[in-house]
Structures are given as structure tokens and as C-alpha cells.
Design brief:
Blueprint (H helix, E strand, L loop, with lengths): L1 H8 L1 H9 L7 H78 L23
């Protein structure tokens, strides 16, 4: 009744209240109005934080991109190291085979041969 009386007989008070951001409501609609105001304020806070969240997401995306690139570089290094190890194993196997062949080689003493006539590499001088 008070709410209806204010609206019907004192419209300037209601208008001044709206201008001052004061809502005049009946007791039955007070909780609905408070819940609506809470939802509006929560939505406003979410919008304010949405910008900060978007900025953080952009930074996080950059971090993930950088991490992916670094993992790619590290993977290349591991592949190169694995290739080097494979090549070292191949070289070691070849050297081992050569060593076994030399070890199995029958070294018999060959009688010394007489030295062959050696021709000097210098030009004889005319006297």
C-alpha cells in the first residue's frame, strides 16, 4: 500500500529517487529486485575480468607456442645425437672387424731380400 501510494500521489519523489539511483519497491518485489541487482553486478564484474582473462589467455597461447617450438628444437637435437651414436656404432663395428682380421692374419717371417740397386736421384756432375 505504501508503494502504491508513493507512485500514485508522489510521482516527483519517485522520479527524484530514480535520478539519484534509488529504487522504491514494494516489500514483495524487494528480493526479486535485489537478486536482479546482484546478477547485474556479477555480470559487470565478469565483463571487467573477461578482458584480463583474454589477455592472460593470449599470453598463455604465446607460451604454449614457444614451448612447442623449443620441444621441436630439442627433438632435432635428440635425432642428431641418435644419428651420431648410430654412426659411431657403425665405425666401431668396422674397426673391430678390421682388428679381428688383422689378429687372425698369419704373420710368417719372410726372409730378407737383398737390397735392390738404388739409382741416385741427383744428377752426376761433369768434371
Amino acid at each position: 500500500a505504501v508503494y502504491a501510494e508513493l507512485h500514485s500521489n508522489f510521482p516527483e519523489v519517485v522520479r527524484d529517487g530514480f535520478a539519484a539511483r534509488v529504487w522504491i519497491v514494494s516489500p514483495t518485489t524487494c528480493m526479486a529486485t535485489l537478486n536482479t541487482m546482484r546478477a547485474i553486478l556479477k555480470d559487470a564484474r565478469m565483463r571487467e575480468q573477461a578482458g584480463a582473462i583474454r589477455r592472460e589467455l593470449a599470453l598463455l597461447h604465446g607460451d604454449v607456442e614457444r614451448l612447442g617450438a623449443r620441444v621441436g628444437h630439442l627433438d632435432k637435437h635428440f635425432q642428431m645425437a641418435a644419428k651420431d651414436i648410430t654412426e659411431i656404432k657403425i665405425s666401431a663395428e668396422k674397426a673391430g672387424k678390421r682388428a679381428r682380421r688383422l689378429d687372425a692374419f698369419d704373420f710368417e717371417e719372410v726372409p730378407g731380400e737383398a737390397p735392390a740397386d738404388v739409382v741416385p736421384l741427383v744428377k752426376p756432375q761433369d768434371d
